[in-house]
Design brief:
The chain is α+β, with helices and mostly antiparallel strands and 185 residues long. It is built from six helices and eight strands, in the order ββαββααββββααα. A hairpin with a 1-residue loop joins strand 7 and strand 8. The longest helix has 21 residues, at 160-180. It is globular. The two termini are 26 Å apart.
Length: 185
């Protein structure tokens, strides 16, 4: 991804290609035996995070601590056993979508992420925080991530996630209406 002059706003990161089809592409690319069902795929401008559910443990355990230890061990085994294949799939996805790829696994009550990206945005933010800022910028509430962060710090409250969900839904409806409009090109 390059950088380029964007007029009055100054330098800005160039846009990565759309990754709307990434969950489907990954669903076709991932080995069937890795996960129970389709993995959760979360996408922002810099990163694609893939978290799959591993098959349930079948053994009995003395207590919750023992079960949690077994779950952590199963995730660790999955991470080691699939490392080479995950690297190759990530390489292909990174080339296709121009975003870093991170992996994770969950089983029972345990979830672990493997080497996720921490992108510099005034401070280092993980993907869930970057998605909040990007939604505010994409919807026009803020002009930049910096402005979105300042806005969020001042106004975030107990119902922020509900409001952001409504905003994403409204943006989706606008995109649908744009697609139905006349082709001016």
């Amino acid at each position: 991804m390059g950088r380029g002059w964007k007029g009055r706003g100054g330098w800005q990161q160039s846009e990565a290609p759309a990754a709307d089809d990434a969950p489907a592409w990954l669903g076709g690319r991932l080995p069937d035996e890795w996960f129970v069902g389709a993995p959760d795929v979360t996408i922002d401008r810099e990163e694609i995070v893939i978290v799959g559910e591993l098959p349930a443990l079948t053994d009995e355990y003395a207590d919750d601590a023992a079960r949690a230890a077994a779950e952590t061990g199963r995730i660790s085994r999955f991470r080691e056993d699939t490392r080479d294949a995950r690297i190759e799939i990530a390489r292909q996805a990174e080339h296709r979508y121009q975003r870093k790829v991170a992996w994770g696994a969950k089983i029972g009550g345990t979830e672990e992420l493997f080497t996720t990206l921490s992108a510099p945005v005034m401070t280092r933010l993980r993907q869930p925080e970057r998605l909040v800022l990007d939604t505010l910028v994409d919807s026009g509430v803020a002009r930049s991530r910096s402005e979105a962060l300042a806005w969020a710090v001042r106004l975030v409250g107990d119902h922020a996630e509900e409001w952001l969900g409504e905003l994403r839904e409204a943006m989706s409806k606008v995109d649908d209406l744009r697609a139905k409009g006349p082709d001016l090109g």
